[in-house]
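note to self: the first set is below, dont mix up w the second
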Amino acid sequence: MIAILTSAGLLFFTGLFGLLLPPRPNGGRLALAGVLAGGIVGIAGTVATLAQRTLTTWQLPLQPLPCGKIIFQLDWCSGIFLVILLVLAMLSAVSGWGLRRLTKQGTGSFWFFYNSLIASMVLILSAGDVVIFLFGWEIMAITSFFLVIWEAGQDGDQTVKTGWTYLVASHLSFFPILGFFLLLSAKGGGSMAFSDLARVRLDSGEAAVLFVLALLGFGTKAGFPGVHVWLPGAHAAAPGMVSAVMSGAMTKMGLYGLIRALGLLGAPATWWGWTLVGIGAVGGLYGVIMALGQSHLKRILAYSTVENIGIICLGLGLGITALGHHEYGIAAVALTGAMFHAVNHALFKGLLFQSVFAIVTMTKEHSIEMLGGLQQRMPITGICTLGGSAAIAGLPPFNGFISEFLIYYAAFQSIMGNGDLQLIGLTTIAVLALIGGLALVCFGRLYGAICCGEPKTVAAATAQEAPIIAALAPATGLALCVLATVGSPWLAGLCWQTIRSGLRIPLRDETLLTPVMGPLTAIVLIALVLTALTAGVLLLRHQLLRRRIVTQQETWGCGYPQIDAHMQYSAGSLVQPTTEFFRPVLDLQDRREFTTTPGSWRQTVNDVFLRRVWEPLFTVIYHGCLKLRPFQDGRVQVYLLYLVIMVIALLFWTLY
């Protein structure tokens, strides 16, 4: 436990000293060293603690404070999330440092906020009581806000507006979380320790209220549909290395909080599982459809985060429903698949954001329509983008396929059950299949529009590979995705330990995953054989062509004498039939201009929840607040009168 707290201390204090240390580049170097040192110390300490296979707790007496003491703890659930966080934080830091000369991210002040963000999430994951958890949660919200608006000078008011949207959403979600812990603590005699809250006995009504509060609070941070509206804008506005951490790690804090909350509520009701499956279905489908319609690179990845959080919720919901039916084998596989996908999402989404960060930095283009032909010009980044796209689309043999396979396996097994377990299994299969198909289109489009064809702008045509340090981060992420595939039978066991610890499932049967281990091992072996055969064919081709003269000819132009880059399919036109199919549930805007030469057509997909729910709601609130302005006239005498009225009202409240 000391190593984990040392890691948080290294992160924070190196960031703080980097902020104060002149000249400014030296502060960035110190903070980067703190990220790497803190990450290594934290991972080593976590692995050493988990090897003991016991819950580790450390208490710090603070008698003057009302809580009396603060508690830190580390178990399987927090440990795995902690390793994910620190690995992603180190890779993103290396990526940002490699591109520092081309961005605004080399200063000590930027690294102070970055290090503090990582340190706050370490606190959240090592918290053993409500006080430390909420303290870390608030620091996470504030530091990430400053990182979101860091590049406000580039597009001005829009980035600041996005930052405020994120900050308001973060603090609105704080109140359900606070209400959850206060109600649970009141029921448990006032204790704030998680170990005491886990022993609280709740009736079905109380548990239902707390479950809804947990969904609202933690679901907002995770990016559940409807309360996800902060996520696309914040990911798009933040620097690339920060977006990788926000998507890969910070959204996982919402999932971690939800898993912990479910573990504190006791035996789950069946309708909780159906609720999570419903959230997963809506989030998964809505996220991938919205990603299809975006042209901004980071917005595509941001909406894909909503999609993948939906897939995780499908696994959680199926597993919780199976627990309610005492189908523990199905529950174990489904919950393992959900946790495995959380790990995988952190790896391949971090990889993709780091690759896109390099592309945007080297080309100065954010639109997918303005790129093309980058595979030849940025080969390392292109290969990383291809690997990340295959992984996130769930293509074998990458790790995204493995975790989705586990959820599929549990869903097909649940069809053999009875009652609503059959129905929830069929629902999961249908939704997951549709998400997979749309994700394949989405990320085939992403890689094709960025890396294939001819460059559509001068910036894309003159792009160069990112500095080797920056390219090292996504390459390492791709290697980790491959390792996650090869080691999936072992990693699946760790994920089962993690989710079992977080949900406090009282099952010690280590054979629950045995039926799925055979197919999982077969998948890994087939993948290794196919990879070896592919490598052999490529090597043979290289040997055969080595002593031959290979000529290159222009591609047949279909009779056109002059081929222009703009004659290629655009990213928007490629998916336009798909977005048109979903027009009844999307907010589509078509802009056609054929009176000029050349003509143009552009389709914009707006967020339905933002445009039709949240913007009208906050417009009503805004106009209501304007009507209260006469009460704020600036005269001190009037404000003193308000205080007197409040004191009198409180006296009447107390006396009567």
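second set (the one i keep forgetting abt)
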Amino acid sequence: MTDIPGYSLLGGVNTPSDLRNLRSEDLPHLAVELRRFLIETLGRIGGHFAANLGTVELTLALHRCLNTPDDRIVWDVGHQAYPHKIITGRRAGLETIRKLGGLAPFNHRAESEYDAFGVGHSSTSISAAAGMAAAFRVQQRKRRAVAVIGDGGMTGGMAFEALNHAGHAGLDMLVVYNDNDMSISENVGGLRDHSARLVQKLGLVAPHLVRLPQDGEEAVETHLDNPGALFRTFGFTYHGPVDGHDLDALTQILDAIKDARGPQLLHVITTKGKGFEPAEADPIKYHGVTQFDPVTGAFPAKKAAGAPTYTQVFGDWLCEAAERDPRVVAITPAMREGSGLVDYARRFPQRYYDVGIAEQHAVTFAAGLACEGLKPVCAIYSTFLQRGYDQLIHDVAIQNLPVLFAIDRGGLVGADGATHHGAFDLSYLRCIPNLVVMAPSDENECRRMFATGLSLNGPSAVRYPRGNGLGLAMEPEYKPLPIGRGRIVRDARGRRRPRVALLAFGCMVQPALSAADILDAVVADMRFVKPIDAELVLELANENDLLVTLEDNARMGGAGSAVNEVLVAQHHKVQVLNLGLPDAFIEHGTREELLTQCGLDVAGILRSVQKRLRARDLDISESARKA
């Protein structure tokens, strides 16, 4: 595609080579077209939005000044990489981004030679670029390695580990520090406050000025005598700050430093949502969007309120718990909005901690709070808890500390794909001693499980999915559950054989019930992944010919494996079918599409069970004799 109506320059840019052939005076016009293309396209399809508007000029400058793809650009997280995708041959495919079979939501090595490193989680870019720079040194190749990391990503400890090592090793690499005062929420931390003071002193127009640190003039001057001192301490040569929306300034500084020896850091100041007034005014609202009016920014009228999301259920419960108990405190690694903590942060600011994109710190910080008699609730996405796994074991579980982990986005999350699915949590949690692991089947169960976890004197985890509950009336009281006890939610109504029992975990209870109506099967809501209800498992094994476990977690090592272990320990001969996520990384699509793809919708469950029932090794003679 070489021409798009209304895009005289962008229509001719299909690779960075086309960009390099343009005149310098054409670049500002190209930036306008690229930004307008983003606004119009994402207004139709939705996606990550505000962060991409903020990197238009930076993307153009990097690809103009570097020799990509031979030179490597590693984009941290990937929220800001849509402009990169557009000018590297994927403009026509942007309509498909985050859809089943379409463009990946983040950078993906298999998608393009320009995607030097696959991303999705934060704070990895400097480490990856450092590894590439070290490889070029070993191979004696003349290539450049560049990491582009936001100030949100720079709150992660891994970024500083990489700076510390790369500076010591003297690697030839460039870190572009894209400073816009935002993660998904407002950015936090001492480095953020330093940037705010710096832009104030230099008289720059920047979003940081809205939230200036509250300290005296003496403190301001002390911090700003040497603005790059921190990075110089790590061994980097500091450049900036530079206006990240000034193409002339960006290309001049990049041309000047791209071949410099040793570690270089370029500090650029940008505005998240740049060029679209509603997004500049509210970058949190416009971080990730559904369809909207590309002129006014207005979203379609909301439908009548339906069932609350599990995230909302958690947020409401937490506020109620904090009202009742002054020891309750909440911790989030930079996911206030996503984890449902907005209301809690407003109502209980002295008991709310946003620690930045620092999951390891979040978990051990919670452990420290628990040591002193508080009741910490660590609200974290399943995929991000992976980053704090050692701390969960070493700092919480070994010490048997009462930390409650509210694990959102368990299972398949949909459009954010393989890097964000909560596909492994039941497997990596259930092997940890002292930890109680629960999975709710509806909103009331969810509240009762939170209450259960908060009542314990050791660590616990409640793992719940993205999306809405069932719309049940909320019970006014939510008493703790008996530990390790499941419940039967459907009995077989006839004498059909072979007899089947579906042992469902969490959100798989509802499709299990639908399948059971056709199979006339027993359904158990197992509730606890750890400790598993061994008594209920054995009872169902004695009364049925086939046990089917259902979970939206990896089959390997998951809840179904816990059932298998109970049966093996008792030398039980009942037949078992484990249904769950396959041993593969599942790409993006809607949650419903992916569940269907994995055979975890009702039709898929029925196919698997009926196929197993047709197997010749299913012996029903024993249950027939019992009848």
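remember for set 2: The chain has three domains: 69-78+95-281, 310-463, 487-626.
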